[in-house]
Amino acid sequence: MIIKKIQLENYRSHSNITVDFTKGVNLILGKNGRGKTSILEAISTVMFNTKDRSGKETGKSYIKFGEKKSLIDIDFIANDGREYNLKTEFFKTKPKKQTLKDMAGFEYDENIQEKLEELCGIKKGFEETYENIVIAKQNEFINIFKAKPKDREEIFNKIFNTQIYKEMYDSFLKEAVDKYKEEVKDLSYQINSLKDNMEDKEQVLNSLKDEEKEKENLQENQEKILSVEKTLSNEIKDYETTEIELDTLIKNIQDEEIKIKKYIGLLKENIIEAKQSKKSKIIVEKTEKSYLEYIEIENKLKNLRENLNNLLEEQKLNTLYKNSIEKLELNNKNLKVDISNLEENISKNSEIKDNLEKEILELENKEKNLNLKLKEYTNLLDKLVKLEDLKKEKVEGKLKKTTEIDILQKDLFSKKDLFKIINIGEIEEKLFNFLELEKEVKFLEEQKIIYETEIKTLKNSSKELTDKVCPFLNEKCENLKDKEAEDYFSSKITLKTEELEKVKDNIEKKSKILLEKEVFEDKKKQYFELEKLIENIEISLKNEELNLKEIELDIKTLDMNIQKLIENQDFKDSLMLREKKKELEVELRNLNLDEKRENLKNLIESLDLEKIKILKNQELIKENINQIDGYSKKIKMDTDTNIENSKIEIKNFEDKLDILKNSYNEYMKNIIFAEDLENLLLKIEKNIKELYSLRANKNLLKEKSLILKEKIKNVKIDELKEKYVMIKEELNEINKKLGSSQEKIENYNKILEKISSQEEKQKKLLIKFKKLKNKLNKANLIRNEVGQMGRAISKYMLSGISNIASVNFNKITGRTERIEWSNEEKDKYAVYLVGQERKIAFEQLSGGEQVSVAIAIRGTMTEYFTNSKFMILDEPTNNLDTERKKLLAEYMGEILNNLDQSIIVTHDDTFREMAEKIIEL
After folding, report:
1. How far does Cα 661 stand from its chain's mean position?
2. What is the pLDDT of residue 23?
3. What is the reported pLDDT for 473?
4. Which DSSP category does 122 fall into?
5. Which residues contact 217 (CB under 8 A, 6 or more apart)?
6. Cα–Cα distance between 649 and 655 in angstroms, integer?
7. 783: which residues sit within 8 A by CB, 6+ positions away?
8. Exposed, middle or buried: residue 888 (CB in 10 Å: 0-12, 13-18, 19+)?
């Protein structure tokens, strides 16, 4: 991949800058604060989807202060050999807008970021690969190898794409193993519980046989007594049924008599209503003609009222049109007066205009001469003020830099004193002891939960077995024989409670000790923070001293430029030059030329406006005359006469309605009763038929009741009932014995079914237990193998990277040591520099060695993980002495020659000779 050009508009400190790159090594040179890093950040943000240096992604952070939006425009040749243009706009509130086009004009609208991954040639872990391999950031590119083991593992697992194995090991494979363990434990408990709760099957079978013989004897005796009981029951039942039938007949006769009385009353009421309905029908026939006439007049009256409303609306419109005509005629009169006044005013102002034009022409010649002199003084003053201000700024900068250097030196001494006080070895030992103590507390917490569960179970068992009857078997519990349930469980609960209290006391003591852990963790954090802070302060101090020397040189150069400017002039400094410039400006102002020009301009504009106004007024008069003609045609002449005639006609019809009102009300009052006459006559006929039917039914019921009284006359019911009670008592006694026997038989059968079920369940559980145990072993085996796969793959890759990186390191430094990069359980992704007699960890190397090792590894990883053949180095010579800088530049070409393009950002000239293109900011 090769970046050809980048253009930035209103991005960070850049207003508008275009940078062209070439194939090979591109060197961006410039002092601090010139925006070198902003160019790299722009490439990272839009092409590799990284966050800005503050960790944010908002458009506002990319926009120059005071501007509304920013633009990044990049032309690049992708891995497919074609040229593309990527344009990105950032806004303060809206999301960014991004377009990607090839040079043929084809635009990619969707999934631009995915397309960029393909075009840039980064194989996996897109952002991580760019951040940690493609770019080596200022003061950051060695930090990845100095990070904590856990952080290194997280970064390189993503780059090597091995995090999937760790995720599988820690997530669903662990869940599967834990699930199988829990199920094995649960099954083992179930199998043991079944064994303990199972009864003696042979003993239960013998008891069942004895009880079945006893039941057969009782059933034979029961059948004999039941036969006698049935005969007596039938005789009693027959008597009672006849007696009930007789009572029912008597009641039915009484009901029939009540119905007869009710229907006689209804018949009388219907006859009265029929008479009233007949009278209403006669009245309706008399008033029907008047009713129909009333309805007809009412409809006519409705139409007349609607017509009157329309005429009144027409009258309102006529009045409105007349008023509009009066207003328009008055308006035309006023417009004609305005036209006359405007024509008079135009004549006066034309004469004033001619005089003013002559005066302005004379003053313009004088102004031209004064302006030439003023321009000369202004140019000289601008140059002199800029030089004096720049000198003043540099002097202030020198004073500020001197103060900053003093502050940094004092801060460095104080930080070094604090650093010496902290004993890191003692802190590490203490933190290890705290870790062991936390494991002990965790074990005690688990013991506490077990004891609490056992106590709860014992308390529940104590409540359930207060009557010594097992809730499952519904019989006496053998374990509590000759014992009190409360005493039996109380002693066990007391023992468990004492053990629980001991565990709680132990947890409390150890927890108090653990409170000190945070203090030592803070000390450890403070140690490493101080170490990093001291390193940063030393770098800053060197940079500030260099900046101070540059400022002193700038001040001397400015003094020479000021002396050169005032040589052979009639002034000694900017103050005298300002006085001369002021004199010319006062003379120019006294001409008042601008005021006179403005007056002439206003006068011309006033004349034009007055002419336009006359034309507008003439147009308005014509429009008003047309409107007056239109309104005159719309006015209707006979509207008032029609309104009066309509009102008279309405009054006549209203008088007729008043005359017919009484007849209309009589008709409406009687019409409903008249229409109901036929229904009432039918009801009377029906009532008469029902009365005949009820009287016949009553006579039939009386005959049936006489027959039933004769039937039960000679039966001795008391003797039959006494004999039946005695037989029933004897039968109840036998039934009780049979019920008890049946209950015992059912209980024995249930116990046998339970034993069979328990035996079957035990077999199934044992089979399931064996299968589950086998699954657990296989799951553990698979999980352990998957857990090792990620590390095995990374070790294989690290071995290859180490070999090539060692060769690169030898070329960069000229030394014979080799780089060893391993990934062990206790030393994750650790880097060592190995010689004949020593093996030094990356963290213990000098600053120059760390940079050389990091560059050697990164060069190798670029080939391994990307197809882009593209690399960015941001200030690679930081922390290196002069000799190391030269050596690094000499051998860096060996690594960079294998790439299509590299961009190096620096503030010194170390890489100048090897660069194909130098860009100075």
Report:
1. 76
2. 92
3. 42
4. B
5. none
6. 10
7. 169, 173, 174, 176, 177
8. buried
* Res 76: pLDDT: 94
Largest CA distance in the chain: 169
Residue 152: name the closest of 870, 919, 842 by CA.
Answer: 842
Q: Which amino acid is located at 789 in the chain?
A: M
Distances (CA, A) of 878 to 553, 883, 906: 24, 13, 9
Quote the tokens at residue 844: 């213990």
How far, in Å, CA of 307 to CA of 774, rounded?
103
pLDDT in tens, 156-175: 887 777 777 777 777 877 88
Please give the Cα distance from 910 to 880 (Å, whole number).
11
CA–CA distance from 534 to each of 157, 406, 410 (Å)?
31, 15, 12
The answer for residues whose C-beta is within 8 angstroms of residue 1's C-beta and 6 or more apart is 76, 77, 78, 79, 119, 120, 121, 868, 869, 870, 900, 901
Q: What is the mean pLDDT of residues 221-233?
A: 81
Measured CA to CA in angstroms, residue 652 lies from 640, 646, 649, 717 at distances of 19, 10, 5, 97
Return the residue matching tokens 């103060």: 403
Q: Are 864 and 896 in contact (CB under 8 A)?
A: no
Q: pLDDT of 190-201, one tens digit each? A: 888 877 777 777
Residue 523 makes CB contacts below 8 A (sequence gap 6+) with 422, 427
pLDDT number for residue 879 = 66
CB 701 within 8 A of CB 247: no
> Which secondary structure element, helix H or strand E, spans residue 612, and what is its range?
helix 593-634
Strand order in the sheet with 107-108: 14-20, 2-11, 69-77, 83-91, 97-102, 107-108
Q: Which long-range contacts (CB under 8 A, 24 or more apart) does 389-392 make?
A: 390/558, 391/555, 391/558, 391/559, 391/562
pLDDT in tens, 880-911: 677 767 766 765 776 777 788 889 888 777 77
CB 902 within 8 A of CB 872: yes
Count other C-beta atoms under 10 Å from residue 96's C-beta.
Answer: 17
The radius of gyration computed from the CA coordinates of the chain, to the nearest angstrom, equals 58
The residue to which tokens 């653990």 are assigned: 514
Give the span between the Cα atoms of 680 and 278, in whole angstroms: 10
| DSSP annotation string for 139-173 | TTTTHHHHS-HHHHHHHHHHHHT-HHHHHHHHTHH
pTM over 0.85: no
Alpha-carbon distance of 597 to 605, in angstroms, equals: 12
Distance CA(306)–CA(276), nearest Å, equals: 43
Q: Which of 374-378, 671-675, 853-857 has the highest mean pLDDT?
A: 853-857
The token pair at 88 is 């990105």
Distance CA 61, CA 52 (A): 8
295-329 pLDDT, tens digit each: 888 888 888 888 888 878 877 887 787 888 888 88
Q: Calculate mean pLDDT across residues 691-704.
A: 80
In angstroms, the Cα distances linking 294 to 298, 300, 661, 886 are 6, 10, 8, 125
Measured between alpha carbons, how far is 644 from 637 in angstroms, rounded to an integer? 14
